[in-house]
């Protein structure tokens, strides 16, 4: 008879707080309820963010979003707009927003250790004036996600320092992972040459615009 492995102990919020201690007042004071000039500058230079959403049951999803620096537009001090560029069309984020409009964003700038976190409420839009501001290479997105900002603050760079994410030497780690074409062929049981699949994927990347 086999037994399921025991799961690690679940801690209560009170236990977690007791273990971590209370945050310093200056840490809580840095949280803003709007996009100030420094946040605007950061967003204008950021080519990449992660978008976290969850459905009505709390099942979470985190998706990457990227484009030219400044692809996210600041509509006003309390509102952002994120273009929906061509992707896999699974639309996890849109499905979640229909059930639960809470969103969390994490902006990064290559080479910079600090990050920008933005939390708020989101919804999809096809407002022509908003989409027109996101036009690139003669292409306008079909949709955008509007984020009504509730919290915005800079996050310290400890995680990026520990991960050495921007260290060129860390790129050698990519060489230890099989090509994505080989992985896809194995996962999906495809009877196709992995190198041909890899070339097809790389061609699709080159056709982004």
Automatic annotation (TrEMBL):
InterPro entries: Pyridox_Oxase_FMN-dep, Pyridox_Oxase_N, Split_barrel_FMN-bd. It comes from the Bacteria. Pfam families: PNPOx_N. Residues 37-156 form the Pyridoxamine 5'-phosphate oxidase N-terminal domain. This is Pyridoxamine 5'-phosphate oxidase family protein. It comes from Streptomyces botrytidirepellens.
């Amino acid at each position: 008879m086999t037994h399921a492995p025991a799961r690690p102990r679940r801690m209560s919020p009170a236990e977690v707080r007791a273990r971590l201690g209370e945050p310093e007042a200056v840490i809580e004071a840095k949280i803003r309820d709007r996009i100030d000039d420094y946040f605007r500058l950061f967003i204008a230079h950021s080519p990449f963010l992660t978008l976290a959403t969850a459905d009505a049951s709390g099942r979470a999803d985190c998706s990457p979003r990227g484009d030219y620096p400044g692809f996210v537009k600041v509509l006003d001090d309390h509102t952002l707009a994120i273009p929906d560029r061509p992707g896999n069309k699974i639309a996890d984020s849109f499905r979640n927003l229909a059930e639960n409009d809470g969103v969390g964003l994490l902006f990064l700038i290559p080479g910079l250790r600090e990050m920008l976190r933005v939390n708020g409420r989101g919804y999809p839009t096809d407002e022509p004036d908003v989409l027109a501001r996101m036009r690139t290479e003669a292409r306008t997105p079909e949709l955008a996600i509007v984020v009504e900002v509730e919290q915005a603050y800079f996050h310290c760079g400890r995680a990026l320092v520990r991960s050495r994410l921007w260290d060129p030497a860390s790129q050698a780690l990519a060489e230890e992972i099989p090509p994505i074409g080989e992985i896809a062929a194995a996962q999906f049981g495809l009877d196709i040459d992995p190198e041909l699949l890899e070339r097809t994927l790389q061609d699709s990347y080159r056709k982004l615009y």
